[in-house]
Amino acid sequence: MAGLAVFGVQFGPVGKASAQDGAPPSGASEIFATTYDYVANFYPLWFTYYQWLYSSDNRFAGPEKVTPLYQIVVAINVDTIYASSVMDLANQPVLVTLPPTKTRYSILSLDPFGTILDIDIEPEAGTYVFVGPGYDGPVPIGLKTVEMPLDTSFLIIRADKYSETGQDLTRQAERFRKRLTTQTLSDFMAGETPEPALVLPEAAFAIPFKTVADFMVAYMPVEFLKLMQNAVHATDYDYSAHEQALSDKFDSLFGTGSPNLAERLEFEAGTRAAHKSIVNRYLKTRGATNWTHFTNIGDWGPRVIDRAAITEFCQYCNGIGTAAYYHAFYDNRGRALDGSKKKGYVLRIPKKKLPDVSRFWSLTAYTPDSVELVDNPADKYVVASYTPGLQYNANGSLTLYLAQTKPSGVPKANWLPVSEGEFNVMLRLYGPQGDVSNYLPPAIRR
Fold first, then answer.
1. Three-state DSSP state, 122
2. Does the pLDDT at position 12 exceed 60?
3. Residue 124 is part of which domain span?
4. Which residues does the UniProt record annotate as the domain DUF1214 (predicted)?
5. Of 160, 182, 205, which marks where a domain is finished?
6. Do the Cβ atoms of 401 and 414 come closer than 8 Å?
7. What span, in angstroms and rounded, lies between the C-alpha atoms of 424 and 366?
8. Helix, strand, or coil here: 96?
9. Does an H or E element contain 145, and which?
10. For residue 90, what is the enclosing H or E element?
11. Per-residue pLDDT tens digits for 339-368
12. How far apart are CA 22 and CA 94, in angstroms?
């Protein structure tokens, strides 16, 4: 738990937030209102800046396997083999080699806020030269240049473990990751060997940043603000005029983080109110069947509360063209999903409502705050269209069972283990087809 010690915790470019984004109430004090806007705008940086400190610059890395111990980001999936890197192009270009593979994979590039960057690269084998926005020097002849809009960004590659027909391609995906390489231009010119992706034990990804953030907001909000202020100052990003003005105003009020008692109470209240708006935006953005679904992931526009809410519950998620995410915390009657209900729950999907995908869909269960997978004796963390033995009903519909233990007579393939207490589930559609914005899964029922 080294990350907790780092934060001193011991457990026991967008516009100003508008009213619809949960802006502070009228009549709020200057400190309260400024703190609220500050947290709402810069909340993602609290995560990315400190997470990136644990990442390797210009070198891919990923977990050896994904288990409940993986907590560095929320709602990790078990469908793909991960590899990610912080791309630091401030000093020179970086060469990235994508090896040939039979498995499909996606490439996601993000700025420090989690906004998806539109870069000119397809998932095709070859060596690519990533260059920063200010670079005007030479590049190797014959290699495709990828012009990045930022000197610092995050690059995530996810290789499918299964084909759309259910063929197990896990070994191919693992081989693909191990053969991913990166190399600075100077090392390339010197004839150095490229660096392969690091495959690390899952314990290297165990720092629960969301848990720390939630804890600090609740019990140590001023200390939380100090860390956020440091992240805002240290993040290499060209802030908008509004963002810079907000940062400057907050700095003038907060100083070095030693307010008097009256001011401290206002800073604390503004932090907690903003965090409450962030959480509520996600949990209350529900359709008629009580599934949360955002269509603007990575493309926020001015909706800073949406951006912060996605960071809180679905950080580093793909854009809707690559994957669609549906998140359920409640059953059909609006009651919190609770695994202590011994009979569990069912998700019955009519044939006409089955997810329309070009790759596959999957359903995964998480602990109450979506931080980690649900630990279970069966060591089973997903039910997916590729799950061997998945049984459909005679009329083409599908029934999935969510319970602590497998209900009698239920096929194991159709059963998703859940926790003893509250839990939530995420349905992912990889390669969504049709009008995804209007699709909602049926309600989950006891």
1. coil
2. no
3. 61-205
4. 323-433
5. 205
6. yes
7. 5
8. strand
9. strand 144-147
10. none
11. 998 889 999 999 999 999 999 999 999 999
12. 41
Q: Which tokens is 99 given?
A: 């090896």
9 and 120 together in one domain: no
Kindly provide the b/e burial profile for residues 184-222, where b requires at least 16 CB atoms within 10 angstroms of the residue's own CB. Answer: bbebbeeeeebbbbbbeebebbbbbbbbbbbbbbeebbb
Higher pLDDT, 100 or 54: 100
Residue 22's pLDDT band (cuts 50, 70, 90): low
240 part of a folded domain: yes
Domain membership flag for residue 305: no
Q: With b meaning 16 or more CB within 10 Å and e meaning fewer, what string describes 42-64?
A: bbbbbbbbbbbebebebbbbbbe
Q: For residue 22, which of 228, 308, 278 has the smallest C-alpha distance?
A: 278
Q: Pick the last residue of a domain from 155, 179, 205.
A: 205
The tokens for 67 are 């288990």
Residues 386 and 408 in one domain: yes
User: What's the mean pLDDT in 294-313?
Assistant: 95
CATH number for the domain harbouring residue 328 = 2.60.120.1600
Residue 5 to residue 7: CA distance in whole angstroms = 5
Judged against a pLDDT cut of 60, whether residue 16 lies above it is answered with no
Residues 174 and 218 in one domain: no
Beta partners for residue 130, in sequence order: 94, 146
**Structure token digits, residue 194:** 């490229």
Q: Note whether 30 and 65 are same-domain residues.
A: no
E strands, 247-385, in order: 291-292, 323-328, 345-349, 357-366, 382-384
- Alpha-carbon gap, residue 277 to 24, rounded angstroms: 9
Rounded Cα distance between 56 and 96, Å, is 14
Quote the tokens at residue 123.
């998932």
CA distance 277 to 351: 37
Instruction: Check if the beta carbon of residue 156 is closer than 8 Å to that of residue 163.
Output: no
Q: Which two tokens stand for residue 221?
A: 């909000």
User: What is the rounded average pLDDT for all residues in the chain?
Assistant: 93
Residue among 396, 399, 364, 400 nearest 382 (CA) = 364
Regarding whether 198 and 93 lie in a shared domain, the answer is yes
Residue partners of 190: CB distance under 8 A and separation at least 6 = none
Give me the number of domains the chain comprises. Answer: 3
Residue 317 has pLDDT above 80, yes or no: yes
- The pLDDT tens digits of the residues spanning 94-141 come to 999 999 999 999 999 999 999 999 999 999 999 999 999 989 999 999
CB burial string 113-133: b at 16+ within 10 A, e below: bbbbbebebeeeeebbbbbbe
CATH, residue 133: 2.60.40.1610
